[in-house]
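Researcher: Re-running this chain for the archive, since the previous output was lost when a drive failed. Same request as before.
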Amino acid sequence: MSFVHAVLFAILQGATELFPVSSLGHAVVVPALLHWGINQASPGFLPFLVMLHLGTGIGMLIYFYADWLALLRGTLGQGYTAEVREQRGFLLRLIIATLPAVVIGFAIKKPVAHLFASPLIAALFLIANAGLLLMGERLRGRAIRAKGDMSNTDALVIGFFQCLAFLPGISRSGAAIVGGLRRGLGHEEAARFAFMMGTPVIFAASVLEVPKLLHAHELHALFGVALLAAIISGVVAFLSTAFLMRYFREHEAWALLPFAWYCAIFGAGSFMLLLAGL
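Model: Regenerated structure tokens:
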């Protein structure tokens, strides 16, 4: 992988991980469309992507540092009783929402692994992602709940929606936001929970994959480039998060629709171009 390709991958990952358009789907489809000649089935490709996810996770962690700090203080029992109770409840919901991804991911990792190297399949799932986002807006809960009004059941449902992202082309953040909308959350609140919920998942994946990048002899030359790419990805992710949180707050009525149409057009166009061998 060249330095230029690594930087482009980093920018792509930092933006599309947060935008509900599937970072993994773009990571598979875009190189195939542009004929970068990257072997996505190579042993170094997935760990490289995980490094980019790690950078993205750090960018998200920095953006939500006040939320995570409040969560830490509440978990440790610091603050007023009501604040401690609220933060501990939020932590419990984050854990509940993460459990489906851990269990289902462990169960289906090998069966779906071959899909991650297929641009055609990823393009089709980008179209499916468009349908998911459209469905999310159409079938959302009618009454928008007050900020912070989320139950453990809501968190579990959002966690199961997040698992749709095990298919390359389905957006993790998009699926989680749709789950939140279905349970009556507003776009901003659903996005906040989706972004914070994604942070431990990203770090958990990094713990599993980054050691492979460090210890595999054929990957040593890639680590320096991957580290720089992770930093770039983190900066882009921070800026993307800042933009999206404001965007979701200001466009409550139809926030997911532009992303849905983008995925439908890009997915269909990519599928036709790839099928034609162009």
